[in-house]
Amino acid sequence: MGKIFGKGRASKMISGNEAIDQIEREFSGISRELRENDGLLHIQTAEFSHLVQGFIDSGNSAEFGRACDLFVRLFLSASPELENALNVSFLEHLYFIDDEVNRSWAYAAMPPPMRKAWDAMEEYNDRLHP
After folding, report:
1. Are 16 and 79 in contact (CB under 8 A)?
2. What is the pLDDT of residues 38-80, one digit of tens each?
3. What number of other Cβ atoms are within 10 A of residue 11's Cβ?
4. In whole angstroms, what is the distance from residue 106 CA to residue 100 CA?
5. Are 78 and 35 in contact (CB under 8 A)?
6. Cα(130)–Cα(127) distance, rounded to whole angstroms?
7. Please, are residues 45 and 86 in contact by the beta-carbon 8 Å criterion?
8. Per-residue confidence band for 3, with pLDDT thresholds at 50, 70 and 90
9. In principle, which of 37, 66, 123, 129 could form an S-S bond with 43, CB 3.0–4.6 Å?
C-alpha cells in the first residue's frame, strides 16, 4: 500500500517483535494468543485488533483510548514491516458502522493520526474494490 502520509519517523524504528512486546505489556490478557503465534506478525497484530474491536463493541472507551494511544506510538515509529501489519491486520479489521451495537463513537474518538491512517486505508481499499 505504501506510505499513508509522512509520519516524521523517530530515529529508532520499532520492529514487529518490539511492538508485540509492547502490546503484551499493555494488554496482558492476550499474551497467550500473541505467544501462540510467535513470529507471525500479521496474526499477532490481528489478535490486537480483535481485542480492540471488543472494546469498541462493548463501548469500553477507556480501554479503547489506551489501545489507540499504543497504536499511535507504534505506528509513528513503525518499521516498514510493522507499518504494513498495522494497516493490513489491525486497521482493516476495525468496524465502526452502527447496526444493533453503537460503534460510531469509536471512530470519533480515534486520535487524529490513527483516524488519518484508517481513512487512508479505507480509501485505498475502496479504490481496489469499487
Report:
1. yes
2. 999 999 999 999 999 999 999 999 999 999 999 999 999 999 9
3. 5
4. 15
5. no
6. 6
7. yes
8. very low
9. 37
